[in-house]
Amino acid sequence: MLILNAVINGLLFGGVLALMAFGMNLMFGVVQIVHLAYGQFIMVGLYLVYLLTVLYHVPLLLSCVLAIIAIALLSVLCYYSVVKPLLKAPPINQLLALAGLWIVLENACLAFFGATYKGVQVVLPVLHVGEIYIAASNLIGFGVGLITLGLLYLFLNKTYTGVAIRAVAQDTEVSGVMGINSRTIYLITFVVGGALAGVTAACFVPVYAVHPHFGSAFTLLAFIIVILGGMGNLIGGFIGAFIIGVVTSIGSTLLNPEIGQIIALLICLLIIILRPQGLLGVRART
Amino acid sequence: MLRIENLCSGYGGFEVLQNISLEMGAGETVAVLGPNGAGKSTLLKVISGLLKPTSGKIYFEGRRIDGKPSHEIVEMGISLVPEGGRLFPELTVYNNLLVGAYNKRTRRHFKETLEEVFSLFPIIKERQNQIAGLMSGGERQMVAIARALMSRPKLLMLDEPSSGLAPKIVASIFEFVKEIKERGYSVLMVEQTVKKAVGLADRVYLLESGRMVFSGDQTSFLNNPKIKSSYLGI
Amino acid sequence: MKFMENFKKGTPLLILALLMICPFVFSSPYLLHIFILIFIWSYVTTVWSYMGRFGIISLGHGAFFGIGVYTTALLFNLYNVSPWLGMLAGGLAAATIAVILGYSCFKFGVIGHYFAIATLVLAEIITLVIIALRDTLETGGKLGLTVRSLGTSPLFFQFENKLIFYYLTLALLGLALLIWKKIDDSKVQRALKAVGEDEEAALSLGIDVVKYKTTMFAVSAFMTALGGTAYIQFTMFADPTTCTGVGLSLGIVFKAIIGGMFTLWGPTIGSALIVVLEEYTRLALGSAFVSYSQIIYGLLIIILIRFLPGGLYGTFSDLFRQKRKREVQVLLSGRQAADPYK
């Protein structure tokens, strides 16, 4: 029963994880950069919700919306100041510059909010069906996650801009010949990716009290999922999120949470070395 | 319509094109022929803005286009069918066509252009929901041409449309090119298969290791003794 | 001309000699403390740049440092093993992990930023292991651990007199710089440089690329762990945030970038600058404001990567010696051609 409980809550949490990984994956697929500071964006989002709700008494939902907009703007700033100038630079330089941004954001939060846990008190019920207990926060996250991903699916398949984003991800050169300005698409991708980080943060509000070191944990978690599913493979990342959701949920129920994470990271290392296309990746990029 | 003057270009300090000049009028079909590695594809890349020229000028309808980004060049009415088609493999055929009509000038005419293209390639209409990557080589080439037409180009450029295809399919591809030509498009075609291409062309250029070694009309090309021996095998 | 050349050759020795006399000129324990920190981080950063300068960017050196720190401290705390032996054990443990990870990565063509990511994952794993062993091995988890103090005990690498640490860490730095020089003059350098520029060409010349890279990684990891031992014996306190993990790994790389990783003195200058910057903010604004210095330093990194990929010292010395310029450009790019992901 304990395990069943863990599996169900893990699956539900997987909905938010899928959302989180989607943003990082999209940026990798389209712009070809590993967004090392992605988790820090989510962390900043959590802090913004805290700031607005607790310190300025803005209603919770409104502050979530404001935070999403703010993170999307932050993402645009990141694109113009860090990513765009380095688009033609070697990938390692991009990675290190984003690591620099990681340090900046983490310490900015530390300087501004201090090293204590900050959270919004949201009291949500725990539902139970028979002997199964489901945290309502997980249910909300799952719902928001799936709805957002559904909207993204429509966006990427049914709109000019969405299809253009996928075209750039698949063949940047030819998409240029089709009249697509890849720079514009990159910018849109950063707006979408930033907004996704904001939505993820909103889903995390009832789950976590935030701390400046959370950003790196989020980045690594998103990273593990993306690598598991194959970098740039959106469907692989989606499935990977649910796998990681269940594994960490069972891991922290049965063992201690660090051991679950260590196993996940070791698997991640093995995949990087042996199956760069991802455990679930079927296609090889050519 | 298209005028190229003393164009030089290449990759990383290595000059592939040396002093290329070319001219074509509206409605004309021009074939640029030459052996593998002569710089034919490079020439199309430079015209479509994928590669910057090191020197020289390119005019399209009187306006200079060299050095402009490729998305602006499409907007002006030049469309490229890359070698092997290079469809977006994970998109459906329909979405590939949608991307073809991405630029502002043609986006509003998407529906009509689509009907026009479907009338040219009825088979694509049936296949529009298929994933492009799962099609055969000949079908991909066809969709690639259709995709290029979706941008309502004034000049259509084809990069080795016959490469890697079986002779029977090549014949049908050239049938399509002929039909496109008859509908009034200007076509700039780069080819290795000399005979078929020359048959369609109003004028022929011959490129050898980055230099233009011949230019003239169909008959003077076919009657040139040197070309006869080395390219036509007569 | 000859005089200038001799002068140039002698400069490193001159600097070392000056540093040796320094403690007799000033006797402030605080300054001594700062110098020791500078020496330790310069040492680690220099050792990191053995690989970095060839385009092999490791974001996992924090792990090796942490292995040095915790192996030494735990062996001593739990089993009373002398840190001198612990130092060796830590070094060997780090080198072993480097050989396993490095060999598998280089063998399967995981290079460039993918290698960086793999090592980053390693850094996180080691941190989590240390936290997970909080009770089993008394690592203290996130709260950190304190080394049992014996006062002064040379046999157990404990000295109350900071001067000893000053000379010890200075000697370590000297050693690291000497090895840097040796690598610079050796066949290994030419081989690895060939690797940095064109792996296939190196292969066709009969250079065993995997072996050279793995060896270099192992040496670098071993020496980084030694730095960890020196650090823990000096501070007598360790916690996962300052002694291991991704943050520390990035710190090492950033110090090298700021100073310039392609020159002998670049890593040292970068480390000195950062240590002084951190200490200055701590003194001027209070320890709650250390994060401000970190913000400055993160911004500095972004700006440097954007405008001066050769680093501060590297770029300035380039102005005088044009020939290095090309090397810098090529090497920071790592290898892209054989990228398995593209």
How does this structure look, described?
The complex is a heterotrimer of chains A (286), B (234) and C (342). Chain A has 286 residues and is mostly helical. Chain A contains 11 helices and 2 strands. Chain A has a domain at 14-213. Chain A has helices at 2-31, 38-55, 60-83, 91-113, 136-158, 160-170, 172-177, 182-204, 214-229, 234-254, 257-274; strands spanning 126-129, 132-135. In chain A, helix 1 packs across helix 9 and helix 1 packs antiparallel against helix 10. In chain A, 57% of the residues are buried. Mean pLDDT of chain A is 88; it is low at 282-286. In chain B, helix 3 packs parallel to helix 7 (137-149). With 342 residues, chain C is mainly alpha-helical. Chain C has a domain at 30-245. Chain C contains 15 helices and 2 strands. Chain C has helices at residues 2-25, 29-52, 61-79, 83-107, 112-132, 162-185, 187-197, 199-204, 209-235, 240-243, 245-259, 266-285, 290-307, 312-320, 324-332, and strands spanning 145-146, 237-238. A two-stranded antiparallel ribbon of chain C has the order 1-2. In chain C, helix 3 (61-79) runs parallel beside helix 5 (112-132) and helix 4 (83-107) runs antiparallel to helix 9. Chains in contact: A-B, A-C. Chains A and C meet through helix 4, helix 9 and helix 11 of A and helix 4, helix 5, helix 11 and helix 13 of C.
Strand and helix map with partners:
The complex is a heterotrimer of chains A (286), B (234) and C (342).
Chain A (H helix, E strand, L loop, with lengths): L1 H30 L6 H18 L4 H24 L7 H23 L12 E4 L2 E4 H23 L1 H11 L1 H6 L4 H23 L9 H16 L4 H21 L2 H18 L12
Antiparallel strand pairs in A: 1-2
Chain B lengths: L1 E10 L2 E11 L4 E5 L6 H8 L5 E8 L2 E2 L5 H7 L1 E4 L11 H8 L3 H4 L2 H11 L1 H5 L10 H13 L5 E5 L7 H16 L3 E6 L2 H7 L2 E6 L2 E7 H6 L1 H8 L2
Parallel strand pairs in B: 3-8, 3-9, 6-7, 7-8
Antiparallel strand pairs in B: 1-2, 1-4, 4-5, 9-10
Chain C lengths: L1 H24 L3 H24 L8 H19 L3 H25 L4 H21 L12 E2 L15 H24 L1 H11 L1 H6 L4 H27 L1 E2 L1 H4 L1 H15 L6 H20 L4 H18 L4 H9 L3 H9 L10
Antiparallel strand pairs in C: 1-2
Helix pairs in contact in C: 1-6, 2-6, 2-9, 2-11, 2-12, 3-4, 3-5, 3-9, 3-11, 4-9, 6-9, 11-12, 12-13
Outline:
The complex is a heterotrimer of chains A (286), B (234) and C (342). By secondary structure, chain A is an all-alpha fold.
